[in-house]
């Protein structure tokens, strides 16, 4: 993961673990401008065995999340600049627990209907919060496992049903050629990895032996255009001089 993206505005707790130990840990992002609350949460979560990332405003959070996607987000609403309510829609594929001093039923209902997985009012009982975190992470793991069993890949708004060879964006079907489908499937199976051009050609060669390096750029350009036409977003990015990856 791209830890360097967070470094300018994140304090990471030193767990004393080596890289090999850290790899399997779940990552939780704390988006909270109150330093004392953030420090307390970081200490508790690291003690529970999580990796922690920190952001102190909505703008900083979105910048950081474009480089690294955590397993769960703790989101304060009263943030400087871009508020938590504006950040939430950008976290559609990540479980979000809202932490807020706003305790009215209207606030809770609005955030839950806007996509939050849970809502915890401040001040909160830390044991209850850690239990809610564990439950939301377990739910995500079960959803991911069911998706794999059903032959389904998901990345943001894109859903690929590999058993039926169907692709939708925001629920709208996308007609892809055999080569475009093979490219998208490989990238979606490795969303955080940059796939080099040579590796891409080699790994899709069984499905599309007619795809050559000279035509690869055209296939990817057509694929990006078809996906973008459905939602207005770019889902694939070119890493100059290396290859391609899914765009967070």
The number of domains:
2
CATH classification class of the largest domain: Alpha Beta
The overall pLDDT average reads: 83
CATH fold group of the largest domain: Rossmann fold
H-E order: HEHEHEHEHEHEEEEHEHHEE
Give the biggest beta sheet.
Answer: 5 strands, parallel
**CATH-level-4 superfamily name of the largest domain:** Response regulator
Task: Provide a brief overview of the structure.
Helices cover 41% and strands 19% of the residues.
Keywords:
Arc Repressor Mutant, subunit A; alpha/beta; 9 helices; about 250 residues; 2 domains
Describe this protein's structure:
- This protein has 248 residues and is α/β, with parallel strands linked by helices.
- It is 41% helix and 19% strand.
- It contains 9 helices and 12 strands.
- The strands form 3 sheets. A 5-stranded parallel beta sheet has the order 2-1-3-4-5, with helices on both faces.
- The model is unreliable at 1-23 (pLDDT under 50).
List the helices and strands and how they pair.
Elements (H helix, E strand, L loop, with lengths): L18 H4 L4 E5 L3 H13 L3 E5 L2 H8 L6 E5 L7 H4 L8 E5 L4 H9 L4 E4 L4 H24 L2 E4 L2 E4 L4 E4 L2 E2 L4 H12 L5 E2 H8 L8 H19 L4 E4 L3 E4 L2
Parallel strand pairs: 1-2, 1-3, 3-4, 4-5
Antiparallel strand pairs: 6-7, 7-8, 8-9, 10-12, 11-12
């Amino acid at each position: 993961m791209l830890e360097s993206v967070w470094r300018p505005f994140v304090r990471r707790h030193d767990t004393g673990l080596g890289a090999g130990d850290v790899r399997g840990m779940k990552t939780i992002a704390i988006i909270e401008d109150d330093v004392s609350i953030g420090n307390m949460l970081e200490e508790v979560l690291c003690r529970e065995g999580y990796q922690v990332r920190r952001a102190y405003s909505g703008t900083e959070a979105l910048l950081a999340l474009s480089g690294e996607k955590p397993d769960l987000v703790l989101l304060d609403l009263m943030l400087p600049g871009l508020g938590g309510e504006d950040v939430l829609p950008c976290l559609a594929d990540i479980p979000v627990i809202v932490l807020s001093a706003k305790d009215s039923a209207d606030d809770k209902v609005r955030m839950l209907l806007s996509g939050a997985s849970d809502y915890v009012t401040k001040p909160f009982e830390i044991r209850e919060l850690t239990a809610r975190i564990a439950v939301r992470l377990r739910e995500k793991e079960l959803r991911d496992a069911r998706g794999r069993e059903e032959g389904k890949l998901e990345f943001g708004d894109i859903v690929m049903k590999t058993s039926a060879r169907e692709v939708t964006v925001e629920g709208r079907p996308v007609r892809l050629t055999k080569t475009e489908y093979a490219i998208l499937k490989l990238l979606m199976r490795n969303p955080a990895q940059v796939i080099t051009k040579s590796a891409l050609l080699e790994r899709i060669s069984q499905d599309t032996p007619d795809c050559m390096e000279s035509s690869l750029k055209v296939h990817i350009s057509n694929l990006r255009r078809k996906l973008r036409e459905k939602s207005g977003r770019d889902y694939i990015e070119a890493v100059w001089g290396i290859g391609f990856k899914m765009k967070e």
